[in-house]
Each structure stands twice: as structure tokens, then as C-alpha cells.
């Protein structure tokens, strides 16, 4: 079996967030992640979770498959940060059904760990 190094989604989101602040290239990042997802991440950084959740719920209905995966992942993390664990874990199956999750070989256990680890690092966590 081939060893394949897979960067976790949470690390990817951190790298992408840093990219926004360092380079100021939100337009480029928006085309990669979806502008709504970038906007929602900015709101989350400002501890405006409810506003971010509204944007994410709309974004997952309109974006392409990669943008939808990102929207679902960010939404699950935001809900976990708010202490709304059951709402967060309710999204797991939807996330795992995406082509991106299947391609990465993402399991429910790995997804749960990533979401909890990412949410645990939030300065806004209630």
C-alpha cells in the first residue's frame, strides 16, 4: 500500500487564513475557497458566529463541490465553537458524502478529531 501524506483540512484552513492576512489576496483565495467562505472565516475571526453561519448555510447551497465541502467544514467547526455539538456532528455525514472527503479518505473519527481540535483553538470559544 502506498504511503500518502494527506494534509488535514484544519491545517489547510489555517494556512489559507494566514495567506489572506499575509498577502491580502482575498480575491484569489475567494476563487479557490469561495468568497462566501472567506467572508465567513473573517466573521468567525471577529467572533461573529451567527452572522458567519447564515453566510455558510447559503454558500453550501450555491457553490461548487469544493466550496460546498469547505462551507460544511467551517459550519461544523463554528457550531462546535459555540458549544452546539449535536448540530455540528449532524453535519458529519453530509461532509463525508462529498467527493473531497471521499478522495481524501476522511473518516468520521478523523473528521471529529479535526473539528474538535480546530474549534478548541478558537479565541472566541464559549
Percent of residues in helices comes to: over 70%
- In round numbers, the mean pLDDT is 80
Terminal CA distance: 43 Å
Poorly predicted ranges: 1-8
Number of helices: 9
SS content category: mainly alpha
Main sheet makeup: none
How much of the residues is beta strand, in percent?
under 5%
From the alpha carbons, calculate the radius of gyration and give it in angstroms: 14 Å
The number of domains is 1
Provide the succession of SSEs: HHHHHHHHH
Name the shape in a single word. globular
Number of strands: 0
Describe this structure in words.
The protein is mostly helical and 126 residues long. The protein has one domain (9-120). 75% of the residues lie in helices and 0% in strands. The protein has helices at 9-23, 26-33, 35-45, 49-62, 65-81, 85-90, 92-96, 99-104, 108-120. It is globular, with a radius of gyration of 14 Å. Mean pLDDT is 80; it is low at 1-8.
Amino acid at each position: 500500500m502506498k504511503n500518502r501524506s494527506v494534509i488535514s483540512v484544519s491545517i489547510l484552513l489555517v494556512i489559507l487564513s494566514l495567506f489572506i492576512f499575509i498577502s491580502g489576496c482575498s480575491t484569489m483565495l475567494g476563487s479557490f475557497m469561495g468568497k462566501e467562505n472567506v467572508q465567513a472565516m473573517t466573521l468567525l475571526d471577529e467572533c461573529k458566529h451567527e452572522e458567519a453561519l447564515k453566510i455558510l448555510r447559503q454558500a453550501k447551497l450555491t457553490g461548487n463541490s469544493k466550496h460546498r465541502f469547505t462551507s460544511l467544514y467551517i459550519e461544523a467547526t463554528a457550531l462546535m465553537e459555540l458549544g452546539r455539538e449535536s448540530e455540528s456532528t449532524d453535519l458529519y455525514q453530509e461532509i463525508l458524502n462529498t467527493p473531497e472527503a471521499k478522495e481524501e479518505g476522511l473518516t468520521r473519527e478523523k473528521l471529529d478529531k479535526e473539528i474538535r481540535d480546530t474549534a478548541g483553538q478558537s479565541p472566541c470559544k464559549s
